[in-house]
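sry for the spam today, last one i promise. struct tokens for design, 108 residues
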């Protein structure tokens, strides 16, 4: 799980994943929109590969990347567990803000 969140921590890698969700891309195609060298893009792809988010296939000189969404599902499930906790806390905070402070003073 740590490697998945580490991979998601960088906006370039999140953008790469977003684009890969639309279909397979080469490392060069992933690098183009962010004006990044092949080497820099390849380093980002390696981080995504280590997290299991991307599978790279080398065909001749082309490095084709494909999204593997399974680790994202596991991360999402982990976050959903804590969503209930935060929803309860935020609901309690909302109730506190909705309370009319003058109502207490009037009852005294």
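last one done:
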């Amino acid at each position: 799980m740590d490697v998945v969140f580490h991979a998601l921590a960088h906006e370039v890698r999140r953008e790469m994943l977003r684009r890969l969700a639309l279909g397979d891309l080469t490392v060069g195609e992933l690098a183009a929109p962010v004006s990044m060298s092949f080497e820099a893009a390849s380093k980002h792809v390696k981080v995504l590969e280590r997290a299991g988010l991307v599978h790279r296939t080398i065909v001749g000189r082309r490095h084709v990347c494909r999204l593997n969404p399974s680790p994202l599902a596991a991360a999402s499930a982990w976050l959903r567990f804590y969503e209930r906790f935060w929803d309860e806390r935020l609901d309690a905070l909302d109730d506190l803000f909705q309370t009319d402070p003058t109502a207490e003073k009037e009852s005294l």
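The chain has two domains: 2-68, 71-98. ok im logging off now
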